[in-house]
Amino acid sequence: MWNKTEKRRGPAASDSLLGAGQTLEGKMLCETNLRIDGEFTGEICSGGTVTIGEKGKVHADITAEEIIIAGHVFGDIRAKRRLILTSTGYLNGTATANRLSIMEGGVLSGLVDMEQPPAPAGTGGAWELRETESDDDGSLERSKAAI
Question: Which end of the chain lies in a sparser environment, N or C, as judged by fewer CB atoms within 10 Å?
Fold first, then answer.
């Protein structure tokens, strides 16, 4: 309370919400997080996390950094980082993600495409076995080398 400096921040970007009982159709583009507890039909593209609540019902293709499904989704989705299907979640469509978590009870009906993030610089992306001759006794030695 005393001698505390309070940092003032600019206005925070607010998350978007489609509440229970609400219905929306169209194309939704947002840079913030989005939560859907109502019904949505169309296309969603978000720079944040898209959460489909337990009562949410979505008929759409979804692209976002992270997608959390606790309700019902019908469509193709692409999570750039991670897709989480909770115990009440249902997905019917193609899921593309770097990481995928399906909790017990979650249902995924469709195809899964796991994208691999690029390998960090200097680590090489693959390994190659090379045979080299040993100077000591003439036997062959195998070694791993990054390519």
Answer: N
